[in-house]
Amino acid sequence: MGNLEFIGLACALALSALGSGLGAGAAAQAAVGGWKKCYANGKPAPFIMVAFAGAPLTQTIYGFLLMNFIAAAITAGTSSTLALGVGVFGGAAIGLSAWMQGKTAACACDALAETGKGTANYFIVIGIVETVALFTLVFSLLALQ
């Protein structure tokens, strides 16, 4: 492997994980704020906000999988440039999905804390954002074939 492949491998994981960290951080902060709002109003604090806060973490797994797919493709003869491009742009797209999922989950925490309603709806829209990362992973794998 040359230098370009290593950069692609590193970016696939690092950019995905960066987005997961940003997304989980945003959602976790909103969960804490939501619980505070509930406590201040004498309402029960929904534990399900933990799931909202953790939702962006799966994109780190997708980044790890993408990194492994790139490594396998390199072994099979994929060009350095393709490995670099898929790693950088695939990792960035997965990371962006994680970040936006965290922002969506943050809004879900706020809404749930205020109304106590809509949990299933919130999970549906969080899942829609997750789908962007899954599509990126699958399409990147296909590009490496």
UniProtKB/TrEMBL annotation:
Primary location class: membrane
Pfam family of the protein (one): ATP-synt_C
Keyword tags: Hydrolase, Membrane, Signal, Transmembrane, Transmembrane helix
Subcellular location: Membrane
Limits of the V-ATPase proteolipid subunit C-like domain: 84-142
Recorded GO CC terms: proton-transporting two-sector ATPase complex, proton-transporting domain
An example molecular function term from Gene Ontology annotations: hydrolase activity
InterPro entries with a match to the protein in the record: ATPase_proteolipid_c-like_dom (IPR002379), F/V-ATP_Csub_sf (IPR035921)
Membrane-topology annotation of the record: Multi-pass membrane protein
Signal in keyword set: yes
Signal peptide as annotated in the record: 1-26
TM segment ranges: 46-70, 82-100, 120-144
Presence of the UniProt keyword Signal in the record: yes
EC number: 3.6.3.14
Protein name: V-type ATP synthase subunit K
